[in-house]
Protein 1
Amino acid sequence: MRKAMMAAALLAAMGGANAARAAEPSLTETITAQDRKVFDAYNACDLETFGAAFAPDVEFYHDEGGVTWERQSVIDNTRKYICGKVRRELIPGTLRIYPIKDFGAVEEGEHRFCQKDQGCAGIAKFVIVWKREGETWIATRVLSYGHRTATAAER
């Protein structure tokens, strides 16, 4: 019993420590604005703006599509599979931002993908690692995973 109580106290303390590391409002606003800028460009097929958000050696891990190892392939894949066909929508309330000391931030959330003329049928989780270079933020790693069909309520 005593060990269980100590373990519970330790877990509670760890949860508090994690909560303390959540991003400050200014970082949250900055990364949220980056997300909006990148995916507004994605939705509009503005590949110049979209591509500028990624490091030349970005690593993009997609549970269904595999791994992409550099920016130009990310742009080419977006042109081929997304432009004029798919729109991304961030699911409200799912975005979380965490600082990375002396580097940048981690963004995580969920989004839905809407096929042109077919509605929003797919949902996935994502993580983006952002590197701060002066006043510029560059995506260095992207994970897109947990792709699934949206329930009727989620559409």
Protein 2
Amino acid sequence: MKPGAGYETMDDEGILIGFYGDDFSGTTATAETLTQSGVPTVIFTNPPSPSYLKRHFPRVRAVGISGTARTLPTDVMKQALTPVFLVMKSYRAPIYLYKVCSTFDSSTRVGNIGKAIELGIEIFLPEFVPVLAAAPKLGRHTVFGNHFAAVGGNEIFRLDHHPSMSKHPVTPMQEADLRRHLAKQTELKSGLINILDINAGPARINSQIDKFIAAGLPIIFFDCITDNDLNTICGTIFRRNSKIKPLFFVGSQELGYGLAAACNEAGLLPECDKMRLPDKVGTDRGPLLVLSGSCATVTGEQIRWARKNGFIDISILPQDLMDSDKKISLKQKIVSRTLEALANGHSVILHTAIGPQDGRIKPMKEMTVKLSLTDTEANETLGNELGDMASDIVGNSQVKRLVIAGGDTAGRIQQSLQIEALQVSKPIGIAAPLCYVFSNKPKFNGLEMAFKGGQIGSTDYFYQVQCARTAGFEELSLGEL
């Protein structure tokens, strides 16, 4: 699957939404919102050309590209994103989305959202860039420009007081005012349409947009508390611009709900074209394999719950996976133990940390310094080693379902599993769906995987994935490689 030579273009009636996800788990979460809204959606690990889509995935109306921009150094962002954005532009879609984490974590050094916006303006030429970080269903809200996030669906914290995100090991969020935060990443000026404007309705929103555009502000943030706010914002912007210039949004996965609603309202997705997932179908898929590279509080609670409820957990010392003298024998032992447990019918969790206070985190940081690696390079190395083990385990067992926990490492692991594309098979709670795998390697093709962000999911999430019943891959597949 390669980008189209010369960036051929697609027919106008083809793709409605093209989106790039800055981490793997967020990309699948966006596909979930679109699929649940009836939009036939497939995610690709490399941007497919329009002709490839016509031949192999003709029913698809939303195309996602899974990326790793959230962990990329700023100086390589343009090089990494330019070819992807150019292929996306060739789809001639009315809507494009640069999906960022709904906690907006980013920095001047890593995962620079400002640079992505600058490039999006250069390539897509939108009238302005709407930024909507909120994800109401997930407990992420923006009020008067300040961002708030719940912990595990419970207490809501201002972002700079959030127990996990304020202490994120790579991109700690120490500023809750999103405009102030973004101003450190770009010289482009931004405005804010606040919750009072949103509540006043479309006419007031459009008036504020006109004012900011006239003042030369290319970026406009939007407050958002509820699903209704989100739908109002997306519908207003779509009706305003969609037939004049392409829309280039930046925001959370839940924009998928609002953008799909706008397309449905405009009659762009006939009933006969809509995607519908069956409810209770399928057979038992057997034991589950979980690989966790997350140190988030929520994932830690999920691992503890699973351990108390029959899952076998295998602790990994991440610093040893970085040690060339230790990693080979360590990986062999872990793979052997995992294969034995799976053969005996046990679900297995491999983890590099259980929560942000885990004693393995400090030695990992020390090893990163010792090896003169950046955080990005260390994440890539760790993800590759976890991916190698996942590949060995899947290739030598009957496991049919995997979970990758931790958005920063998920993109690295998928490369080892030779994943070419993904399609949502079943939502599991919010923002961490099961997906069918499209792979040129027969052992991996049709596998089911969930890519779960560190802060996502209920305490019994892994058990829910283990028990989920889904239709067969061949029955629901939207295409073939």
Protein 3
Amino acid sequence: MSENYNECPICLSNARLPVATRCGHIFCWDCIKNWVNVKGKLECPICKSGIKLEEVIRIYSGDNELKKGEVDDRPQSERSKPEYTQPNFARRFLNNFGIYGYTNDPLMRPPSQKEVQRNILSLVILIIGIVFIFYIFN
């Protein structure tokens, strides 16, 4: 077996516009397209599991630029939304003083109504404390 994981097992060269089947095998997009369309086989050339051209996974690599006039007609990759993380206190405080909990960070989830109320209450208590300290020392 070859040590080159980017080698297309159909044409035996580096995969151009590489795609991976659901069974995990990597091919040139043109090679697997021809395999299915010309040979009429809806099975992986390596393991014989069923394949559909719509279900292959596009592999992004920097060394597979299109030639002039060539069109990349590989299926689009699925993109899932990121999961939100709970920010730590320092991050939230530095971003907006902890009032609402919103930041420009796309990984941070919007705060719940309870968190917003708690943050506003904390801010009100802080302001009352500062006013009280100024009142005592004046």
Protein 4
Amino acid sequence: MKKIIATLTAILAMGFSSSFAGTLVINTDLTDPAPKAAFEWAFNKFQEENPDVTIEVNNFDHEGYKQAIRNFLTTSPPDVFNWYAGNRMLPFVRAGLVEDVSDIWSDTGWVDGNLTEGMSHAKKPMTIGGKQWGIPYTYYQWGVYYRKDIFDANGISVPTTWDEFVAATAGVFDYLNLRTNGYEFHMALTKGEIPYTDPRVHAVFDKWDELVKPGYFLENHASLAWQEAIPPMINGEAAMYVMGNFSVALFKEGGLTNDNLGFFQFPEITPGLPMAEEAPTDTMHIASGAKNKTDAKRFLIFLSRADVQEEMNKTLGQLPVNSGSKVDPDPFLEAGLNMLNNAYAMAQFYDRDAPAEMASEGMKGFQEYMVNPDRRDKILERLEKVRQRVYK
């Protein structure tokens, strides 16, 4: 573990007593170049605005952080730590290791960080048991990337309904479930509260059948890594790809441009169901055992501000969560920002929302189904046995 200590002269900040001043300890695994640069900027700016606070950052490598987080939250908790939204934070909340920060979401007694107005669309994935347990600072959209020129050549319009989408083709479990049964059902399923043999899960697979059985996917799709599915899009062998915005750089490296590459929202399936989206979200939290909770809350409010998120996400190349933030001119970032700012809620993707063992077995089952859809019943019965074991 590498320790970086940034120190400024302690001066009382206006509006806060000296009892609030002190060292703010932050544990992170934000060591890749872009997040490291973004947070170095954020740490420096926060200290410029709050010269009574000294930030001490403990940086871990990614795998070491995953292994160490429960231990350090229990034995030597920092004031602030980074993690993820949704069910990924659930085990730590249940264990009493994360501080309830509902007061800064409601602005009770705190300088407004625009959490209420600017991030109301992101409140659900930060909420467990009716309380908020952190703040989100960045995310990126998933959706359908498509070849505009192939659509035009075949007289296909951008699908806005499920029937139009099937006529054009694509699909993944998370979106099918979100669009068929809704956000609350999807989160309950990934929390182990709903059997995989439930008729509503079968309804998701009924929709999936409409894509799998006619053979709308690439041959050998189950054996392809996500990067290996990029060339068929570039070569015109595929016309759509359900993927995250990080794929755009590879599409463009392969020769696609804004003229022949487009993006659209995964279409509605169940009429009137609120449209939740897939948007893996990175977050900051306060440890329940933090020694400096006052400055920790000041930092979370700072990190929630539109101007701060806007600047950080320019470096991250992702989307700010605060709806008051702007993005650089880019059709994919602009489309993602508009879509997520108006989303009902954000899911975190199956392998983040479900525990590791359930996610692993679930992904294997989904891949098996896409190769052998007639095995659906046996696959779901097997996943149900895994659910009963994992969540007991």
